[in-house]
Amino acid sequence: xxxxxxxxxxxxxxxxxxxxxxxxxxxxxxxxxxxxxxxxxxxxxxxxxxxxxxxxxxxxxxxxxxxxxxxxxxxxxxxxxxxxxxxxxxxxxxxxxxxxxx
Length: 102
Hints:
Elements: E1 2-7, E2 18-21, H1 24-30, E3 37-42, E4 46-51, E5 62-64, H2 66-74, E6 87-94, E7 97-101
């Protein structure tokens, strides 16, 4: 699935404050409301556990993780023009495990 880069408006060089935004349609298809976290294979970081916020099923369908942020920074995807985030891919492997890639 295509996802967009996201930051909380105060991202840091450590990677905190970044994540990816899932469309509500993809969230409803690929994610389970019973999940409290997902595992994401991130190139260079291995498999990381990312907690899904309570607002994930409401108005904020983002997966937030400093590991995602570090990956975005190292791939030159950490900044974008307002309203024009980068598009990256999040592929479901099985269950609550995904792979993040370009």
